[in-house]
Amino acid sequence: MGQNISMNACARSGLMLAALVFLAAAPAAARDQIQIVGSSTVFPFSTAVAEQFGRSTDFKTPIVESTGTGGGFKLFCAGVGMATPDIANASRRIKSSEVEMCTSNGVSQIVEVRIGYDGIVIASARGNKPMPLSTKQIFMALARQIPVNDKLVDNPNRTWKDVDASLPDVRIEVLGPPPTSGTRDAFVELAMESGAKQIPYLAALKSSDDKAFAEVAHAIREDGAYVEAGENDNLIVQKLVANPQALGIFGFSFLDQNGDRVAGEVIDGVAPSFDAIADGKYPISRSLYFYVKKAHVGEIPGLKEYISEFLSDRASGEDGYLAEKGLIPLLDEDRMKVRRSAEALEDLQL
Known about the structure:
Layout: H1 2-25, E1 35-38, H2 43-56, E2 63-64, H3 69-76, E3 87-90, H4 96-104, E4 110-125, H5 135-142, E5 145-147, E6 152-154, H6 160-163, E7 174-176, H7 182-197, H8 200-208, H9 210-217, E8 226-228, H10 233-242, E9 247-251, H11 252-257, E10 262-264, H12 274-278, E11 285-293, H13 303-310, H14 313-316, H15 332-343
Parallel strand pairs: 1-2, 1-3, 7-8, 7-9
Antiparallel strand pairs: 3-11, 4-9, 4-10, 4-11, 5-6
Helix pairs in contact: 2-13, 5-7, 8-9
């Protein structure tokens, strides 16, 4: 009898092992809900579309997570299948290195959807005296190294007055996004690089060694003058209200939604506004995107319909509900072109 019990136990163990092997080998369970990751800047727009999509269709409301643009692409490019996201929101265009990461993990077909524009603002608590800035002053305040007597040195500027005698004698403290953020990527490219080009030593470096120039222009100081405040732009707004001497960096939509608490600084003589960003006059503006995993279309219910909702007149048109949230819309002609390309699921072309 003891021998029978032992044999039965072995049989049960074998069955359990076989079941575990089967479960490990089985594909991930099918999903019936779109999963979206990525940019904190695009997050409120994507969330608004997801909520409208859930209310007005028979599909479930998509799940939207704010992971930052870079973090979103890491998740999106991890592979194809139900355990990976369907869409990555981005506050900058996807990089060739990220496309290579996708391809190496089997994500070979990606659909790019440009949704509109956004400006990157430098803001302070409402009620503060305005501090107009130039992109050159921004670079000299936030760069890790700056040229002094034709030599690169660690940034010695501690106050805005150190940067320029016309600025206040206030400690430099700027709250901004981390390296995983598309807003950070766009800020260093559009503001820091633009400011660096105005300095003769660095302009000459760009002419002789573009890579070395980029390393200097894109490196933000790490000595406390620039404070990484995470991917939550609402948190930066709250910290500015609590610390009136600090400045914060975030997307125009958050300025638009929090205009009662914070105000945007004039940059290179242009105030951040809907019109100035739309016509390209505001110097720190960029396009916004989302990217769709083509292999998931037809597998995840509602993906094509979600794209159509996002690019519809009522959502991203000139008078759409996303404009009310601060999205600067594409011209109708451009939006129709993007819509035709997206609904045809045309592959990304860099």
